[in-house]
Design brief:
Length: 421
């Protein structure tokens, strides 16, 4: 159960938010979170460890000048001598296990470096709580800062943090010491609990919409049926399977128009595949679009499809925000069952589910949504009801803020284990 949100303190709750890069145009869900926390009265200090910077909604975003890492030449010996409880953990981690990838290695080094450089500043002007928006570099920074300053910290754990190459290098240690862990899917919670993170510390708080759109009317004639897909053009989105689905729709004589919104390393390959399968005239690659233009495309669409898979690296989606966004707008959804999509899309109730390799099932699903008005309206109504209950940004942000308040008031937590059991 979540703590009940009480009246705000006379003194505003001071939260230091740590990001890898902020603001980032592909992470609108985190931008919404900052807006919500600011609206609820938090005194926010935003740090961006790698890129980003400037201001966001009038709030300064402080970036990490990498030249300051030179300070570590004297900070590291000092920490090694005076705080072996911190330095020893990092040293043992370096020599007793391999990082899952070079990228994750440097992410953790960046976080540790940030903590080494900024711990004095945090000690002089402490926030009530430090929150890591990701379990990579930000959580490493929060974990080390907390050990150096005794300021409590919390962390968010996203699908990338949990599953890419088996999970972050020091994921268990970082989350074990957190006052609470924020994840947005039941899948994430069950995976973390299965790996030994205390289940009671993990809170499933979904993202959400500030305001729900007016539902699109169901088009009386859905031929050609309008299909939209939103996502980065990367392996875990399953776009190779999607090209197969579009080719099968054409072979089945089903008239359709598909628009793919997003960019990424697979774009040229996918465009060439569309030409080879002779579907280029039916499939338009829109590239990256601003959020307002994404909503325009959702107003155009009859159906949103999501063909997510588990990538070879282990990475996968959680519940992509565009799925409940489409549901809220009255766009019908067909999804693969990979990851946490079925937490929102219940087959035959809020949408349709089909394995990405079962091409005939996708063709049948699209055909039914194009022709069965009564069924489509039932799906739309139940999908809108689900989003109203689970994807309200005001309600969900209040739950998260209450977690921050409770965590900041708790007595000092145990610093957590020093090795993964």
């Amino acid at each position: 159960m979540f703590p009940t949100l009480q009246a705000l303190h006379k003194s505003r709750l001071k939260i230091a938010y740590l990001f890898t890069t902020f603001p980032k145009n592909t992470e609108t869900f985190l931008q919404r979170e900052i807006i919500a926390m600011n609206r609820l009265g938090a005194d926010l200090r935003i740090y961006s460890l790698w890129g980003g910077g400037g201001t966001f909604c009038g709030l300064p975003v402080r970036t990490f000048n990498k030249w300051r890492l030179l300070e570590l030449f004297w900070i590291i010996p000092w920490v090694a001598v005076t705080r072996w409880d911190v330095f020893g953990i990092l040293l043992r981690g370096l020599f007793t296990r391999r990082a899952p990838s070079w990228m994750n290695f440097w992410e953790n080094m960046l976080g540790a470096g940030f903590a080494g450089v900024f711990h004095g500043e945090f000690r002089k002007n402490p926030p009530d709580i430090i929150h890591a928006a990701w379990s990579g570099a930000p959580a490493t920074a929060a974990w080390c800062l907390s050990r150096l300053t005794k300021i409590p910290y919390s962390a968010a754990a996203h699908a990338y943090d949990i599953y890419e190459h088996g999970g972050d290098w020091w994921l268990f240690e970082k989350l074990a010491g957190a006052r609470f862990i924020h994840t947005s899917t039941d899948m994430g919670k069950s995976t973390l609990a299965g790996r030994g993170v205390p289940a009671g510390a993990i809170h499933v708080i979904r993202r959400g919409l500030d305001a729900f759109p007016v539902m699109n009317p169901l088009r009386p004639s859905r031929s050609p049926i309008r299909i939209v897909c939103v996502g980065r053009l990367v392996e875990k989105k399953g776009f190779g399977h999607q090209m197969e689905i579009y080719a099968a729709l054409k072979d089945a004589g089903l008239a359709f128009e598909a628009r793919i919104i997003g960019d990424g390393p697979l774009r040229k390959t996918l465009e060439q595949t569309a030409v080879e399968k002779r579907i280029a005239g039916c499939v338009t690659f829109m590239g990256h679009l601003a959020l307002t233009h994404v909503w325009e495309q959702l107003q155009w669409a009859d159906v949103l499809i999501h063909t997510g898979v588990v990538a070879r690296s282990g990475d996968r989606d959680g519940l992509p925000n565009v799925i409940p966004e489409a549901m809220s707008a009255g766009v019908l959804v067909i999804t693969s069952p990979a990851a946490a999509t079925t937490e929102a899309i219940r087959h035959g109730e809020t949408g349709l589910v089909a394995a990405v390799t079962d091409i005939p099932a996708w063709v049948a699903a699209v055909r039914r949504l194009a022709t069965d008005d009564a069924f489509a309206e039932c799906l739309r109504a139940e999908a809108r009801r689900w989003t109203g209950e689970n994807f309200d940004a005001h309600k969900n942000a209040a739950q998260l803020y209450a977690c921050f308040e409770l965590a900041a008031r708790q007595t000092p937590a145990n610093s957590g284990p020093t090795s993964n059991p």
